[in-house]
Amino acid sequence: MTSAIFSSSLLGSFPVVTSTRHCDLGKERNKFCCFNEKKEQRNVICACMAPPTRNLGRDEFHGTKFTESSKYGNFSKEAKHENDSDVLIECRNVYKSFGEKHILRGVSFKEKKLGFYFSCNGDGDIRHGEAVGIIGPSGTGKSTILKIIAGLLAPDKQPGSTGSQSKPVQGHSPDRYPGQFPEQSVRLAGPVRYENSCMSDEQIAQLVTETLAAVGLKGVEERLPSELSGGMKKRVALARSIICDISKESIEPEVLLYDEPTAGLDPIASTVVEDLIRSVHTKGEDALGKQEKIASYVVVTHQHSTIRRAVDRLLFLHEGKVVWQGMTEEFTTSTNPIVRQIIVFGTGPDHLVGPVGLGPGRRIGLE
Ligand SMILES: Nc1ncnc2c1ncn2[C@@H]1O[C@H](COP(=O)(O)OP(=O)(O)OP(=O)(O)O)[C@@H](O)[C@H]1O
Predict the structure, then answer these.
(1) Which InterPro entries match (predicted)?
(2) Span from the CA of 138 to the centroid of ligand 1 (angstroms)
(3) Exposed, middle or buried: residue 55 (CB in 10 Å: 0-12, 13-18, 19+)?
(4) Model confidence over 253-263: pLDDT tens digits?
């Protein structure tokens, strides 16, 4: 049985170029160390594009073992996967409560470099570089699981426990968790982000310019956040998540985590962001024609267009568990009553409406 140990380290501060949903990619860029069953260490870099973290408090942490509650899980069907050395992220029966609110009640999945599959149906592999979406009703824990993956929250030690595996936080207390920096230009993000870099100021400036160009934002370096539209702010945030210190090969992100990256955008701006999310992926090239290295990404979204354009496989979270998973095109034909309810009534402003009928979507957990 593979055990994955995740540790995160925040890679320096990176000022926020504000967003309607505040995005602080620098802070939320985490380095994960995974160990496969031979205890060989491999590094997985995650960067996330997320709204503000609420009340991290004592749950904020720098490292955790996701295997702590694995004794409550049953991974017997994983046995058919003989080689887990390419697992990027593994969640085993993850629980999370906030006080008396039991939010996550046994979420399990693995993300593999060569695929993504569930603990309870090991045949759900995804091709290399496929994108995974997490959907579900409001308050069901989508952002929470994303934060746990990102290393911003610790899972509970055991089901129903309100404790966490937090370690003391040094230098990243919640009150220092960055707000917005309205007085700082887009370009200023670079030098602060690279305060520990060996790169020269010129190299950093060039990298910022190139990365902005890669997300279709030429010439905005000197603009203040107040001078950017909502869609531009999202694209700046995306640039932050993909920019990397060329003097440090190891911080290239392999996994990108997006929490509602198109929330609040009009349909056209959403499309631009969705296509950019696709374009920074391993399968494609960025706007400058460079081959990207990001192996996979996870998107939490309510928006139909994001699912349609930027997601290959869906995880449906309901009441703290994954209740359905399948390819995006299977979603609208699922017969799962909970899924059908979402298809018909939606979960957000741009809700999913599609044909309902018989389909091959896999059901997990609920009958
Ligand atoms: N740090 C926290 N402290 C207390 N409660 C929290 C915290 N973070 C999340 N919650 C609660 O956990 C529940 C799940 O929140 P989460 O943001 O994960 O839901 P979600 O599925 O992403 O919702 P939405 O789709 O509306 O964004 C909510 O009831 C929320 O209020």
Answers:
(1) AAA+_ATPase (IPR003593), ABC_transporter-like_ATP-bd (IPR003439), ABC_transporter-like_CS (IPR017871), P-loop_NTPase (IPR027417)
(2) 8
(3) exposed
(4) 567 788 888 88
